[in-house]
Design a protein that fits this description.
Blueprint lengths: L2 H13 L2 H8 L3 H15 L4 E3 L2 E3 L1 H29 L2 E3 L15 E3 L2
Antiparallel strand pairs: 1-2, 3-4
Helix pairs in contact: 1-2, 1-3, 1-4, 2-3
């Protein structure tokens, strides 16, 4: 299940319309319709009634899972970004040098 499609589904339900969801997400209305159709095809079940726009029983069940799934995805992204932002330490060792030429610990980016 594509998280982008899931996010679009949640937005359509929250906004109550495909066009309002498109405005909020910065997509065109046909793009939102295609994303919902792709998600429905992936799951093999209708998720929304079209007029008025409301989740079906399957859509309501998916909505229950969507919040925790999207939250975990955001947490994973933030955790990886935090790890990538940490400086790495490289220690170089060798034989002792005179005091004026001693090696020092340095931090190297990436």
């Amino acid at each position: 299940m594509d998280p982008h499609l899931l996010r679009t589904f949640v937005t359509v339900v929250a906004e109550g319309s495909f066009s309002a969801a498109a405005d909020r997400l910065g997509y065109t209305q046909p793009a939102v319709s295609q994303q919902i159709a792709a998600l429905e095809a992936d799951l093999g079940v209708p998720l929304l009634t079209r007029r008025p726009v409301r989740p079906t029983r399957a859509g309501e069940r998916l909505l229950e899972h969507a919040g925790p799934l999207l939250l975990r995805l955001r947490a994973a992204r933030a955790d990886v970004a935090r790890l990538a932002a940490q400086p790495r330490t490289l220690t170089v060792a060798g034989r002792p040098a005179p005091p004026s030429r001693r090696l020092r610990r340095r931090r190297w980016p990436g």
